[in-house]
Specification:
about 40% helix; 4-stranded antiparallel beta sheet; Alpha-Beta Plaits
Amino acid sequence: MCPALSGFWKGWEALLFMPRKLKRHHGHGDFHFITFSCYERRALLGTVRARHLFVKTLEEVRNHRGSLLVGYVVMPEHVHLLVSEPRKGNLAQLVQVLKQRVSRAMRARKRRSPGQLTLKFPNTTGELRRFWQRRYYDFNIYSTKKMREKLEYMHANPIQRRLVAHPRDWPWSSWSFYALSEQGLLKIDPMGGSQASIETDSEKNSPPFQTPKG
């Protein structure tokens, strides 16, 4: 496998073969790289409407819980977040509330606007049991180097999946903040209080986009 794709496939392996007993290390003030996926890895966030709804809900939940958002990407079937531990409650509760609110909002939209979404709720024969997979992947970030690595990985996701040719064409990520100094769809809180402190190497020279090495 070529080096450029190795990091991408490592991320998918984590989603597909997530261990049953995950050890989570909270309470130390670390940043966390969070990954969770839609039910059965289906593209339930495959529409613009669904991704905008997720982003709106993420903003509400992280503000209410007091969590810093350093980076993110919303993909059709999974989500990556780089966040701090919240001031209110813990990280597991933040993820739980976020997933619940998105699921409920999607169900409500389906009831109000039949035919606009491909989801079918509630559970009947041939319909989906839930919106999200039950668990999530959590990786503690201990260094600026690792932070840059995760940002590069997230921002490269839409290109690796061939959804777009350049990350600027996928607005549901934090790429524009680091590459163009633009706020984008969500307020980003860079680690260290300075955008330059975690600016990734490939983003210092935005066009053309350079796929990170694995």
